[in-house]
Design brief:
- The two termini are 27 Å apart.
- 27% of the residues lie in helices and 24% in strands.
- The longest helix is centred in the middle third of the chain and has 14 residues, at 119-132.
- Residues 1-48 and 50-66 have low confidence and may be disordered.
- It contains seven helices and nine strands, in the order αββαββββαααβαβαβ.
- Helix 3 packs parallel to helix 5.
- The strands form three sheets. Strands 6-3-9-7-8 form a five-stranded mixed β-sheet, sandwiched between helices.
- By secondary structure, it is α+β, with helices and mostly antiparallel strands.
- It has a single domain, classed as 60s Ribosomal Protein L30, Chain: A, CATH 3.30.1330.50.
- The structure holds zinc ion (ZN).
- Zinc ion binds at residues 8, 11, 88, 90, 119, 122.
- Zinc ion (ZN) is lined by residues 8, 11, 88, 90, 119, 122.
Amino acid sequence: MAMAMAICAQLSSSSPLFHPQITKKPFLLPSPAATISVHGFSTLRPKSLSLSHRSSISASAASSTVDVNEPVKKSVRTLPFRVGHGFDLHRLEPGYPLIIGGIDIPHDRGCEAHSDGDVLLHCVVDAILGALGLPDIGQIFPDSDPKWKGAASSVFIKEAVRLMDEAGYEIGNLDATLILQRPKISPHKETIRSNLSKLLGADPSVVNLKAKTHEKVDSLGENRSIAAHTIILLMKK
Ligand SMILES: [Zn+2]
């Protein structure tokens, strides 16, 4: 989670945010033969990551690499259920759109990020990846890769769902909590939930969304940031 936060900080610190746009380009994950640097996130190769091809990923002498596939091998072996948690936070800045769950929410500020800064979709992706025992969103979709600049976060969701499906799991249920001081989410909650369900290919009854303020304290409470938590239960198909 700390890593995810660090990555989001990296995303936030990169300059201009683009409005979300649907990319028609094929979406690719790193090759299983690629070495993923925990600290650099820059050594991913733009080839498809397949859970069914689990060649080993080398560990460097500096032990700064992770084996993408080793946890998956364990995870898909026998477990009938897997739980994942996702957390994300973005800084809010004037002049940017506020995209939550793929929906453009009217507000006086939005997320400055490498992608569209969709805090909800990012943490749902991390929850799915976490449940599968995969590296987090920042490792799989590195902000150093220009192809994710301004990307609609729905592409990350679709890829996470593909990986879940490939591993033989489906969504049991999902519970997400948005934390922001403003604007009020209640008028948009059903639209967001419905869109999230659609993106996940899940029945809306298993996708829950809550929202709360931060009691006007800290950056969240001062309308300077937005955060989200997600817990997801995956079930073996
Ligand atoms: Zn994010």
